[in-house]
Amino acid sequence: MTVDRFLLCGTRVAEAKPVRLSAGPLSADFVNGNLRTIRHGGTEVLRAIAYVVRDRDWGTYEPTLTDLTIDQGADAFSVSYTASCTGPDESRLVFRATIKGWADGRLVFEVSALPESDFETNRCGFCILHPIAGLAGSPVTVEHTDGSVVDTELPDLIDPWQPFKDLRAITHEIRPDVAAECRMEGDIFEMEDQRNWSDASYKTYVRPLALPWPYVLPAGEPVRQTVTLRIAGDTRPSISAAANEPVRIQLGEAGTRLPDIGVVIYPSDVETALANLPMLSRFGPQQILLHYDPTRGHGLEALRAHARLAAACPAATTLECVVACTGDLDAELSDVADMVRRAGLRLDAIAVSPSVDRQSTPPGSAWPACPPLEDVYAAARRAFPDLRLGGGMFSYFTELNRKRAPAGLLDFVTHCTCPIVHAADDLSVMQSLEALPFITRSARAIFGDKPYRIGPSTIAMRQNPYGGATKDNPQGQRIAMANRDPRHAGQFAAAWTIGYAARVAAAGLEMLTLSSFTGPFGVLAAPGEPTTEGSPRPIFQAINALCELAGLAHVAAETSDETRVLALAGRSASGATLVWLANLTAHEVPVDASELGQGHLVMSPYAIAKIS
Length: 612
Prior knowledge:
Elements: H1 5-9, E1 19-23, E2 26-31, E3 34-40, E4 43-54, E5 64-72, E6 76-86, E7 92-102, E8 106-115, E9 119-121, E10 123-131, E11 139-144, E12 149-153, E13 164-175, E14 178-185, E15 189-193, E16 201-206, E17 215-217, E18 223-233, E19 247-257, E20 260-265, H2 270-275, H3 277-283, E21 287-292, H4 300-312, E22 316-323, H5 329-343, E23 349-354, H6 373-383, E24 388-396, H7 397-402, E25 412-416, H8 426-431, H9 436-447, E26 452-454, H10 491-504, E27 511-516, H11 538-549, E28 553-559, E29 565-571, E30 577-583, E31 589-592, E32 600-603, E33 608-611
Parallel strand pairs: 19-31, 20-21, 20-27, 21-22, 22-23, 23-24, 24-25, 25-26, 26-27
Antiparallel strand pairs: 1-2, 2-3, 3-4, 4-10, 5-6, 6-7, 7-8, 8-18, 9-17, 10-16, 11-12, 11-13, 13-14, 13-15, 14-18, 15-16, 19-28, 28-29, 29-30, 30-33, 31-32
Helix pairs in contact: 4-5, 5-6, 10-11
């Protein structure tokens, strides 16, 4: 089957194809100098072992590899290479890496790095990713740098801080009577719960966050680190399902209603939206989220623009209002309320959040000056007494988990997510969907049955809580923390969107926002894309499908392989059931939909399909 890569991913640049390394039951994918999907007997042991170099904004360098050698035998494999990173002012870091694996279940990854000049970084060293599916909440044994050993558990609900510090080794069970020990040497390691950022992993990394960053690696001083994986016990391979086995779909009981679907509109996009009102009506969102940020110069004219759109569109409206918090809160929010009245802006709700809370406060960092949230919400309530009031974070669940809003003062709680905070390859972005049920369950554990909204959540990053700015991406590459992502224009985004909605459906959200209408986060094509400017991107169909499902009773829909296909189902008052499927892979996937009355079908790469 020939597929236009541009239509799939918004770019014709293919990702580097993994090299499968194997030694008996041990296997790993070698990609761009690092290891992914480390398995033993078909069971995923580690999601990744990667040597990572970060810049001062937490962006990840893409090292240039040279002298690459790969030797593959029946019972062992080895890899060696040299790599280099070039930083600001022509600073340069060079490192030599060796990877060896054996059939007895041992794997060793060693790196020796040498800065040719003083090299500034936020992190330089190994990151080890443990998977979350089947592992969250399970027992582990932790060895600390002082030699002490503790039997404990990986967090089930998402830990806002580091669950384990001063790590030397961590051991977990991968199958009954089979254990995997991961030992780290050369620095002090600690673990963070990456589900905070919707990564599908627990990440063990070097250099405790309590130490200052950025920091400088002095010229000429080598940095050596080693990660060793040992698998012990009954190491005979387990029997796993064939990768080409059809994915089976099964429906369960009906539950809570599926959420309203929102679309975010920025003041700069209003005129384009007004020029495309028929398309917006066809799109069919139940809610419009109107962004307003006085720290970006928004004022009366921005609110007047929003008023024109609200008057022309029947959807409910929420003002996403950034609060500068630089003076008297009552005066600031009363001024906003006065401008809303002068603009004639029709609103159904307002969500407020201090501007400073869009920046993350990592462990060990000082919290920035900010009025108590109780005072912010009270001032907003006084300024807008007749509107529903929301709060939380306009950044990500991470920030909400670390600074928990006093929800008793609110009518709803909100936050966003972004799948490219730490990694931007296709696999990592799709795997991020696995973390969403943990996010919603953790939010429910904090806020109970408080009405709950998520979004805007898009593949691209609309703001960077962890550095000075998002990354510009004029070449349309797959890069972390980018403010534009090529896949948003491709079929990839449609599959990711249906998958996202499927993963959060059981949470009983009030509203879900996964796009804007125009622009880099929008559903309409921009210049340079394969379709005519202003015509629907593939994500248009996905969001339109969610709009069609909004308000229906959510029907539990399970698939036999959620890494390949996810299903979202809703049931109307008349009993009619509507199901949407999403192929999360770059390959054709056979699907057994016989329980839905459809028999067998084959889904194209990143395809979405409707069954009714």
